[in-house]
Design brief:
Elements lengths: L10 H8 L3 H8 L7 H14 L5 H12 L7 E7 L11 H16 L2 E7 L6 H10 L4 E4 L19 E5 L9 E5 L1 H14 L5 E6 L4 H13 L12 E3 L4 H15 L3 E4 L4 H7 L9 E4 L10 E3 L2 H17 L11 E4 L2 E3 L9
Parallel strand pairs: 1-2, 1-3, 3-4, 4-5, 5-11, 6-7, 6-8, 8-9
Antiparallel strand pairs: 10-12
Helix pairs in contact: 1-2, 1-3, 2-3, 5-11, 7-8
């Protein structure tokens, strides 16, 4: 008898061997925390020894049934806001769409997304107690303000599945979902060229950290498409000294002579106006985020999809009982799309 013709081992056969119910076997194979770790290990070892393999047709049928019924709201997920002024987080349109996308996807999947302010209203220690008492197993961590990370103290991440948005929150080092900033830099550069611009510059704040690195990497890679004389070095401003930033900007503009600029600095049009440049008459402008940026042309980062993807990843971790800080963090990158606007009119 060849391998493919062997009868498939069933859950009931494993259950019979271990003298437990087939429901317990099913839950143990899914790492359901309602089943003790000892029983889960016993079931998984027996399944491996007996050569059990999930039936893909049954798995597909189960998925179909789950997706085509109304899900009652059965459990809560936590959105932990770490901003010193929590209300400011969702004043950013990108981050508000993170919430909306996440909240809608959670509801569709039978969960309820609840917001907790930490450490504004709850200390990390108190937050831990509240989440445990409420039976909350999944935590979403939205971006931090200017890279600030709270002191989590003795917060035990091993009790939760965790997903963070972006790189600004330095701890915990969990799985994350964010915009594909490198590909967005490429996308912006290519579309600015299609609009007729040839000397395309980039200006960003130094404090952006990982965001600066990834967007500028896409921008610099895109420049390899053009001749060397058209490759403008990006300008990175410190923001700590406005007068110095203005001098550096004037010097860079005179030296590089850009006909268009890509930026994420929200006050950039005012900076240009102060030194005598008009948008778009003197220089075209595109934003790395048209939602929170300074230009009508640029990248729409599909922030609602980022929020939904965060929930999908978190629910997957819960279903597989993958709690705590992962040995190998995963990155889910969501590409943006280009939006035309008056700040970057087409040139003949």
């Amino acid at each position: 008898m060849n391998e493919s013709s062997k009868p498939r081992i069933t859950l009931r056969q494993i259950a019979s061997r271990l003298n437990i119910s087939h429901t317990t076997v099913s839950r143990a194979l899914q790492n359901d925390p309602r089943i003790s770790e000892a029983v889960r290990r016993q079931v998984q070892d027996a399944a491996k020894e007996m050569g059990y393999e999930p039936d893909p047709m049954l798995a597909a049928l189960a998925h179909y049934r789950r997706e085509n019924v109304a899900h009652p709201v059965s459990a809560a997920l936590a959105w932990v806001n770490t901003w010193a002024q929590p209300q400011k987080l969702r004043s950013f349109r990108e981050f508000n769409l993170y919430w909306k996308g996440a909240e809608e996807e959670a509801r569709r999947s039978g969960y309820r997304l609840e917001e907790f302010d930490c450490p504004k209203e709850l200390s990390p220690a108190r937050l831990y107690e509240v989440l445990r008492a409420r039976g909350i197993r999944g935590i979403l961590l939205p971006p931090a303000w200017s890279g600030n990370t709270p002191d989590w103290g003795a917060f035990n991440w091993d009790d939760f599945c965790i997903v963070r948005f972006g790189f600004s929150l330095k701890n915990p080092i969990s799985h994350l979902v964010t915009s594909d900033q490198l590909s967005n830099g490429l996308l912006a550069f290519d579309n600015m060229r299609k609009r007729g611009y040839s000397r395309i510059g980039m200006v960003m704040w130094e404090k952006q950290g990982t965001r600066l690195v990834r967007f500028s990497a896409g921008y610099l890679y895109a420049q390899l498409q053009v001749q060397a004389s058209l490759r403008l070095p990006p300008l990175v401003l410190a923001e700590t000294d406005p007068a110095a930033d203005e001098r550096h900007l004037v010097s860079w503009l005179k030296k590089t002579k850009p006909d268009a600029i890509l930026t994420d600095i929200t006050t950039f049009p005012q900076m240009l106006t102060k030194i005598g440049y008009k948008v778009p008459q003197d220089v075209g402008l595109a934003a790395l985020s048209v939602l929170d940026g300074c230009a009508s042309a640029g990248i729409y980062q599909n922030s609602d999809e980022i929020g939904a993807a965060g929930i999908q990843l978190l629910i997957s971790l819960i279903h597989h009982n993958q709690r705590g800080i992962p040995e190998i963090p995963r990155e889910v990158l969501v590409p943006g799309k280009w939006v035309d606007g008056d700040s970057l009119p087409a040139r003949e």
